Amino acid sequence: MQYDIIIVGAGLGGLTAGAKLAKAGKKVLLLEQHDRPGGCATTFMRKDFTMEVGLHEMDGLHRADPKLKIFNDLGIMDKVDFLELPDFYRFVNERYDIVIPHNPDEVKEILYKSFPDEKEGIDTYFYHVLNARKIMKESQGQKDKSLGEFLDNIIHNEDLKLVLLGNLGYFHDDPYSLSYYYYINAQGAYYNGRANFIKGGSQQLSDALVSVIEENGGTVKLNSLVTKINLINDKPSGVNYQNGKGLKKLEFSDEAPEIIINAAIPNLANDLLPNHLAKGLIEKIKGKNIGASLLTVYFGFNKALKDIGNPNYSTFIYHESVKSQKDILKNNHSDFNSRSFTFVDYSHVDSELAPKGKSVGAVCCVDYPEDWESLSPKEYKEKKACVAEVITERCNKLIPGFRDAIEYVEVATSLTVKRYTLNPKGAVYGFAQNPDKSTDYLSALPENIHIASAWGKFGGGFSGAIISGYMTAFDILRKA
Questions:
Q1: Right CATH for 84-198+293-367+373-412 from 3.90.660, 3.40.50, 3.40.1350, 3.30.530
Q2: Which strands make up the sheet holding 406-412, listed edge to edge?
Q3: Nearest to 318 by CA among 195, 155, 122, 159
Q4: Structural domain spans, the chain
Q5: CA-wise closest residue to 343 among 322, 317, 367, 304
Q6: Separation of alpha carbons 306 and 308, rounded Å
Q7: In the β-sheet with 250-255, what is the strand arrangement from edge to edge?
Q8: Torsion sign (Cα): 212, 217, 223, 228
C-alpha cells in the first residue's frame, strides 16, 4: 500500500511525528515491533498494580517549554492529566539529607545554609542552569567541557557537588564524560518550570498520541517488526515488515516517499539499510559511545507508602563509598549492595497506578548488559532475585516498614530494556552525550530518511524524543 510517510517505531518521537503529520493531512503508517506503543513511555500490569516503565518525572510545561506548544497543537492537554510533583528530589548520603524543591530560589537558600562557604559557587551553578539558552548562544564556536570539569571549577565542597548531581542518572552515568552544554539545558528545564507525572502512567500519553494519529486517518500497527528498507532507483521507497509471531507471522511491504526512523541509529545502519547506503552511516557512528542502561525494581505495596513514613516522592540514595563526583562512575559499576539508586514513591500523587489503599514504587539505578550477558537463564533469574532482596533491605533501612508493605516485586535489567526496545546495550538515552558530541552522522542519511528518537540531535528522555518527533514532522512538511 502507498502512504505519504512510514514511521518505524512507536516511541514518543515516532508517535509525536505521526500525530503532527496525520493532523496535517498526511497518510501515515506507524509500525511498532512491541505489543504496545510508547517505547519507554509505557506501563504494564502485575496483579492489580500498574507498573510505570520509564517516567519518574517529566520536566517543563511552563510558558517557555516547547512541549507545551506541541501538546496544545496536538490536543494532548485535553486527553492527558499532568500532575505537578511536590518536590524535585531528596538527596541522601551518610552525611547529608537534603530536599531539593523545584523553585531555584528556595534551593539556593537551602544550600546556603548547608554549605555557607559555597555561596558564590551555588549562585554560579544556578546562573548557568537557569540561563542555558543564553549561555549556549553566547558560547557558539567555543569548545565544550564536561559537567565534572565545570563543577570542579566553581565548587570546592564535594558533597555539594553530589547534592547537585543527585539526578545525574536522568542523563548519564559519569559527570566527567557528560557534556556541560547538554546538562545545563536539560537540568534547567526542571528548575525553570515544574516536574510532572502523567496520571495513570506514561502509557496515557502514548495512547493519546496514537488516538491523534488514528483520529486523523493514520494507521498504527503493533507487533510489526520492520526488517528492511526497500529502494527504487537507489532511493529508499518503503519497508518490509513482519506482523505477528511464530507460525502466525506474516510478511508485508508498504511504500512511502518519506521514512521516519524512531529506532536506534546502529540498528538502522547495521540491519535495515542496504549495505551501500549504510556504509557512510556506519563509518560516521564508529566513534560514538552508546549511553548507559537502567535496572528497575518494581514494587507493588499493600498500603500507601507515604502513610508509613516515607516523606518524599523521589529520593536519591548515594552510597557512602561515593565521596566525590570522581567516585560516581566506579560506583555505577559496583555490586548492588553499594550501587547508588533512586526510589520513586508514586503514592505522593494521585497516580492511579494502584487501587485505593495500595501504592506503587520503583527503584532505579544505572545498569550495563555486560553484568548479565554471561549468565545462564537460571543464573540470570537467581541474580535478579538477589538484587530484589538487596534493594529491599536497603530501602527497609531508609523506610522502616518498607519490606512488610511489599505485595509484589519484579526486576527489569538492561537486557530487559534491550529486549523490549531493541536498543543496543539497552541504552535508554541513545548515544552518550559526551562533550562536543557531533550529530554529523545525520548527514550520512539518505535525504528522505529522518531520525525522530533519542538517537537524533535533541538527545534522549521524554522531552528530547517529543521535540525530535515534532521537529522532524515540520522538516517533512516544509519539503512538501
A1: 3.90.660
A2: 97-100, 89-92, 314-317, 341-345, 359-367, 293-301, 406-412
A3: 159
A4: 5-44+201-288+433-479, 84-198+293-367+373-412
A5: 317
A6: 5
A7: 224-232, 235-243, 250-255
A8: negative
Give the amino acid at 357: G
Asked if 23 and 212 count as a contact pair (C-beta separation under 8 A), the reply is yes
pTM: 0.96
What is the edge-to-edge ordering of all strands in the sheet holding 28-31? Answer: 219-221, 28-31, 5-8, 258-261, 449-451
What is the rounded CA–CA span in Å between residue 368 and residue 352? Answer: 31
SS3 content of the chain, % helix, strand, coil (to 5): 40, 25, 35
> What count of residues does the chain have?
480
Instruction: Say if domain 5-44+201-288+433-479 classifies as CATH 3.30.70.260.
Output: no
- String of DSSP letters for 220-285: EESSEEEEEEEEETTEEEEEEEEESSGGG-EEEEEE-SEEEE-S-HHHIIIIIS-HHHHHHHHHHH
- Reading the block at residue 233, the C-alpha cell is 532507483
Nearest Cα to Cα of residue 126 among 79, 160, 175, 75: 160
Task: Please name which of 190, 197, 214, 235 lies closest in space to residue 50, comparing C-alpha atoms.
Answer: 197
Q: Is 424 helix (H, G, I), strand (E, B) or coil?
A: helix
Rounded Cα–Cα distance for residues 3 and 250 (Å): 20
Q: Is 191 left (phi over 0), alpha (psi -120 to 50) or beta?
A: alpha
- Looking up cell 489503599 gives 357
Contact 184, 51 (CB under 8 A): no
Q: Is the pLDDT of residue 245 over 80?
A: no
Q: Over 70: is that where the pLDDT of 156 sits?
A: yes
Tell me the pLDDT tens digit for each residue of 212-228: 999 999 999 999 999 99
